[in-house]
Structures are given as structure tokens and as C-alpha cells.
Amino acid sequence: MKKPLISIIIRTKNEERWITSCLKNINKQTYKNYEIIIVDNFSDDKTVEKAKQFKISKVIKIKKFLPGKAINLGIKNSKGDYIVILSAHAIPTNNKWLENFVSAIEEDKKFAGVYGRQEPMSFSPASDKRDMLITFGLDRKYQIKDSFFHNANSIIKRKIWKKISFNENVTNIEDRIWAQKVISKGYKILYEPNSSVYHYHGIHQNENSERLKNVVKIIESTEKNYKPGNINPKKIKIISIIYVLSYFRIPYIKCIILVVLSS
Fold first, then answer.
1. Domain assignment of residue 179, yes or no
2. Residue of 120, 117, 111 lying closest to 82 (CA atoms)
3. How many other CB atoms sit within 10 Å of the CB of residue 135?
4. 190 with 257, same domain?
5. C-alpha dihedral, 166 to 171 to 172 to 173, nearest 10°
6. How many CB atoms lie within 10 A of CB 153?
7. Mean pLDDT, 10 residues at a time, the chain of 263 residues
8. Alpha carbon of 193 to those of 56, 93, 94, 137, 153: distances in Å?
9. Which domain holds residue 244?
10. What does each C-alpha distance from 55 to 49, 59, 214 come to in angstroms?
11. Whole-prediction pTM value?
12. Quick one: 166 and 139 in the same domain?
């Protein structure tokens, strides 16, 4: 029986540092029936030139880049039954990365998407190493309520994408929004640690403050189950202020203990 065609969508913007390693490791895969679609945001380095040294089916240009828009554009120009979405700076760690993805998504008709493990580079910032090592563990996880999903390393079913495409207006977490929608329709998400990649940055990109604010803003506006604690600071009453001096050591320690009570 012929194996299904896999379309690998890689979004790029000045990725010459990574693209060769990414494509080399794709070429080493045991699963061979795939095509590669590059969606390039007008790179002004050698990204496209280096990519074309490999067997690339198409290079598509996108001027106004938004993550969901770029993914949808790549899928529209692809032919595969399954769609792998991979960051250009994500490098498969083993030659069964793609085979494991295909096997996983074919296990259950209700699987809309599968996302894989992300492991840090030796030179990734400490905050990014922390993000990846904590978030992407070694145990498989079946998600029927949790909408976490990550497009840096994932596979989805085309037939489900035709019903539910990616949001083309948000600047971040288009993957999570998509997963939230498919889960609401009764589909499931799977985390498959055996489909692993090396990824330079973590999900918060070295604590980029603007990105963090934007991600939280989008989650707050789209997540139905988001219910933060609600204490009004204006209603917190101060009962007493206690001034404490300690002479046990020199210089002595001064401190103020503020006792508060929420009304």
C-alpha cells in the first residue's frame, strides 16, 4: 500500500543560519513520500538560495506576514493528505521524526493534530531551555480539553484543515486558537515526544515582554475557560503598620511589616 503524501510547510524569514541543517535532517528521514513548501517572508539573506540546494517543491513569497496566513497559504499550495508545519530553525533530532508523526496521527480518526517534542540547543538562552525542558516532556499526552498546540513542530490532517483553517488575523498563538476550535468540535490533540526537534528558542522567545503581553491578551480574548482571580485592590483595607528594629547584628536591620486584609 502506497504511503500518503506529506506536505511539509516551512515558514522562513532570514533563516540562512538554520535552513541547511533543517533540510538535511528532513532528507535523512526513513519516510520518503513528502514534498517541501517554503513560505518566505522576503528574506534578504541567503535563506532561499540555500533552500534551493535541496529538493523543494515550491517557494512562495508572502509580503505581509502573519503566522496563520502563511500556514494557510502554504497548505493551499500543497497536495498532501497530512500537513507537517515546521519552523525553519527546528531541526529533526532523528531519522524517524516524520515516520513517528504519520504513525501517531493515523492512530485515531479523532486526532486533528499532533505536536512533537522540542529540545534546546546547547547555546539556547537559559530561559528558553527552561521553557522547552518543562513544557515538552517524555510522556505522550492525549488532549480532549487542553488546547495547547505548537506549530513549530506539528502535523495536522488536511481534511480537518479544510473545515477549520488557521486564524489569519492574530500575531501569535494561531496554533492554540486552531486547537481550541477543533477540540470544541469533538476532535483530539496528541503530544508525541518521539517526533522531536532541536529548537533554538522556547515558546516565550527568551522572555520577550511584548510577545508575552500579546500572547496573554489573545488568550484572554479567545479562551472561554479563562477565569483569573478577581480581587479589587481598591477594596483591600490596611489594618496596621508595625515598625520593627533588630539589634542582633550590626548594622541593625530595619523593616516594616504591613498587615492587610481583603474586605
1. yes
2. 111
3. 15
4. no
5. -20
6. 26
7. 94 97 98 98 97 97 96 98 97 98 98 98 92 95 96 97 97 94 97 97 67 57 66 67 55 54 51
8. 27, 11, 12, 7, 11
9. 233-262
10. 12, 11, 37
11. 0.81
12. yes
